[in-house]
Sequence to fold (579 residues):
Amino acid sequence: MMAVAFSLAKREFTRFARQPQRVIGAVAQPLMFWLFLGAGMGTSFRPPGLEQVSYLEYFYPGVMVMMLLFASVFACITIIEDRDAGFLQGVLVAPVSRMAIVLGKVLGATAIALVQVLLFTIAAPFLGLSLSLFGVVLLVMGFILTSVGFAGLGFFLAWGMRSTSGFHAIMMVFLMPLWMLSGALFPISGAPAWMNVVMLVNPVFHALEIIRAPFYGGGLDLLGRSGYLLSLAVVAAWAGLSLLGSMRRVSRREVGV
Amino acid sequence: MIQINSLTHTYPGSRKQAPRTALDALSLSVREGEFAILSGPNGSGKSTLFRILCGLALPSSGAVHIGGIDLLAQPEKVRRILGVVFQNPAVDKHLSVIENLRIHADLYGIKGADFSRHCDEALAWTDLADRLNQRVETLSGGLARQVELAKVLMTRPRVLLLDEPTTGLDPASRRNFLAALQKVQRDRGITVLMTSHVFSEAEDVDRVAIMCEGKLLAFDSPQALKAMIGTEMVVVQPMGEVEDLAAILRAELGLAVRRHGDELRLEETENGEGLPMLESILERWRGQIKSISIKQPDLEDVFVHVTGRAVPDHAVKKELPR
Fold:
């Protein structure tokens, strides 16, 4: 199963690498988002308790999560056309496990997302952020789990769609708000109470937590913090559930009445 | 090799649409090593049947066995012996020919020395030998189709399903594709079921199935099908109202006269009978006739004959008062 999944994931990555405009867009867009928003908001944004942190720095892990979100959305949007009139037709009639089909897509999207977000991690020292060696391991784990969660969710949503424009709508009214309410743009402490609840059950909030933490928490000691472990568990569960849900969707054959 | 028993498929309706029956107790059996073509007008249920045969949809009722395996219960077993060529390209055009073949081999677990052997075999009949590293998007439509077929043949399928594989090809490429397909099919004894709209493609296959409204109307060799409507037919194009002349011919000659568009067809005529009939018609009704000819029926005429008669459509009924 994994051999098939890796083969499909490799295809995904090769396609990405062969479209230079996609590579440039994927890196430049979040970078601009970060620099313009970060610089613009810098002086007006001083939330209580975060006086020491510039907005550029606060927003930094949030942009990482956004990169992970966009990478998986772009990968999953191809599902819609590929399934009925493209490459996926041949995969679906091949003797491969349905989980391998999901994993191929999700791992491909994750590989693409990792390249982008690791490139972006180079900016950390310029913000005065440092990472321990174990911190890097935890950070990469956070990237991978989050990306699998997003790609699995994207897969699940895209599989039932008839048109790419429908998927764009879902992206704008469902996936983007998940990101906006993750604490990427503003800290949870300043939000109204009802929003607090929404943010706490939002898996993307927990994804942001485990990506932000290694920049501030050092290394091994993070694993002793219950808050970190809770977020880690939520993200892992999100990733696992979205993979299972996607697999169930792919396995289901349309049935006559 | 392919056995379809009383297959019925009804699409669930919605608030705006009533449930629609696409396949209506269809039975069909394709023998091992046979090249069969499935044709039928748009909406006849071909695509639905194709999706079920690929294992992508489950019918409302009925059974399908491929290679003796129950497709509905064990699709994954059938997938091992099945090759499918889709109407829309299923190769990745951003990847090269060989990259596409390699991914497909990975899907079927073909590795190492096996891969090169299967690959050589699958490419032997193609014109792709010196284009293996070219991306598919740079190839012509005909060559891209060759990649499609080579990819599927690489896994050595025992049963090959093709859904209008020559759509969008020019006549020369279409002929090449079919010639190659038929040669490979014969050499390896593959069982082929191919849907097609183009009747010239069907002239030299083993059997042709004609379906309409989810039912199988005919399934026989091209020769036998053509014999159904005689070896000659007289085609009359009336000058004025088509039905007027049809009624006259029916009454005066006591023959079955079938209307097809603005033509009247007198079928089931044996060799040599056509010319005297043409002469006598021309003699008596010359003033009402725009053109008249004798024709050797081809498969398309059989198709018109078979589907025209069986369609219980009110539009056709109006044209064919009995």
Q: What stands out?
A: Chain A touches chain B through 28 residues (CB under 8 Å). Chain A has a mean pLDDT of 89. Strands of chain A lie at 254-255. The first helix of chain A runs from residue 2 to 17.
